[in-house]
Design brief:
Layout lengths: L18 E2 L3 E2 L13 E4 L4 E4 L4 E6 L7 E3 L9 E6 L7 E4 L6 E6 L3 E13 L16 E25 L2 H4 L4 E5 L2 E8 L6 E6 L4 E3 L2 E9 L3 E7 L10 H14 L23
Antiparallel strand pairs: 1-2, 3-4, 4-5, 5-6, 5-7, 7-11, 8-9, 9-10, 10-11, 11-16, 11-17, 12-13, 13-14, 14-17, 15-16
Length: 277
C-alpha cells in the first residue's frame, strides 16, 4: 500500500516542486497514491475516493458529473477532507465492512489504536415529490446526500485531526466558511457563485482558517467522534456520534444489498467500535 499523499494543502499549493505540464513528474517517486490504493465509496448516486492517508481526494456533488469539491487526486490544492491521526499518515490496514461499502481504516500510533469508518449514506426514500435529478424508477432507498466519518479509539489515546478544505469548481474556488446556529461543531462552506453549499457537523470544535476547517481532539479508549458533510437539507446530516454510527451500519448495509463482497479479517483481539460517548 502506498502511504504517500496526505491530501493537505492550501488551494493553489501543488505540494511539491516537480510537476510540470511539459516534463511530467521530476522528483522521483510521485507524491500521489496509485489509483488502486484508493478506497471507493458510493451511495448509488455520487461517489468518492479515499486515499490511504485517510483523505477524501475525489468527490463530485450533487451529481457524479458535477464539478469536483474534493480533487486532490489531481492537484494537491484542489480540495481534500481528512479525518485521522494527527501524526500518522500510513494505516495498518483497510477493509470494507462485510456486505457494505463502509470503508474501515485501522491506525496504530505511539499512544494507541484508532479505527475510522467512512460511508456515503443510503437511507429510506425521502423525496416527497418527483425530482428532475432522479431519472430511475423510485425504490425503497435513496441516496442520503451525506458523507459520514466516524473515529473510534480502540485502545490508549490518539490525537485526532480533522481537516476539511473544499475547492469548488475543480479547485478554482475555496469557498467561504461560517458557523451555523452559533455552534462550534456546525459549519457551512459556500461557493462564491452561490450555487452549492456544504454543511459540516461534528462533535469536535471547528476553527476556520483561510484554507479550510480544522479541528483537533484527543480521543480515548471507547470514545467515538464523528464528522458528517452534507450537500442537501433532506434528510440532512446526523447530529450525534450515535446517529453517525447507525448511519455507517444499518442504513448503509440495508440500502446496499448488492454490495456483499466485503472481506472480513479479524480484529486481532482489539476492541471494536460499538458505542459512542
Amino acid at each position: 500500500m502506498n502511504g504517500g499523499g496526505d491530501g493537505i494543502g492550501e488551494p493553489g499549493d501543488r505540494g511539491g516542486a516537480g510537476l510540470t505540464a511539459e516534463s511530467g513528474w521530476q522528483g522521483g517517486e510521485s507524491p500521489f497514491p496509485a489509483i488502486a490504493d484508493y478506497g471507493f465509496l458510493s451511495d448509488c448516486q455520487c461517489n468518492a475516493l479515499v486515499a490511504p492517508s485517510g483523505a477524501v481526494e475525489w468527490m463530485c456533488v450533487p451529481r457524479p458529473d458535477s464539478p469536483s469539491v474534493f480533487g486532490a487526486i489531481l492537484d494537491r490544492g484542489a480540495g481534500t477532507f481528512r479525518l485521522g491521526p494527527a501524526e500518522v499518515m500510513v494505516p495498518v490496514s483497510r477493509r470494507y465492512l462485510p456486505g457494505t461499502l463502509v470503508l474501515e481504516t485501522t491506525w496504530k500510533t505511539r499512544t494507541g489504536w484508532l479505527s475510522v469508518r467512512d460511508a456515503l449514506l443510503v437511507g429510506g426514500w425521502h423525496l416527497a415529490s418527483p425530482s428532475p435529478e432522479w431519472r430511475r424508477t423510485p425504490g425503497d432507498f435513496a441516496a442520503g446526500h451525506c458523507l459520514v466519518r466516524t473515529a473510534c479509539c480502540l485502545s490508549g489515546a490518539v490525537p485526532l485531526e480533522l481537516f476539511c478544505a473544499p475547492a469548488f469548481g475543480y479547485g478554482r474556488d475555496p469557498g467561504r466558511w461560517a458557523y451555523m446556529n452559533g455552534d462550534y461543531g456546525h459549519g457551512r462552506c459556500a461557493a462564491e457563485d452561490g450555487g452549492l453549499e456544504l454543511e459540516l457537523r461534528t462533535d469536535m470544535r471547528l476553527g476556520f482558517e483561510a484554507w479550510g476547517a480544522l479541528a483537533h481532539r484527543t480521543v480515548r479508549e471507547g470514545e467515538t467522534v464523528f464528522a458528517a458533510l452534507s450537500w442537501s437539507a433532506q434528510p440532512g446530516p446526523p447530529a450525534t456520534a450515535a446517529e453517525a454510527l447507525n448511519g455507517c451500519g444499518a442504513r448503509v448495509s440495508s440500502g446496499a444489498s448488492g454490495w456483499g463482497r466485503g472481506s472480513s479479517p479479524t480484529t486481532g483481539g482489539r476492541r471494536t467500535c460499538s458505542k459512542a460517548r
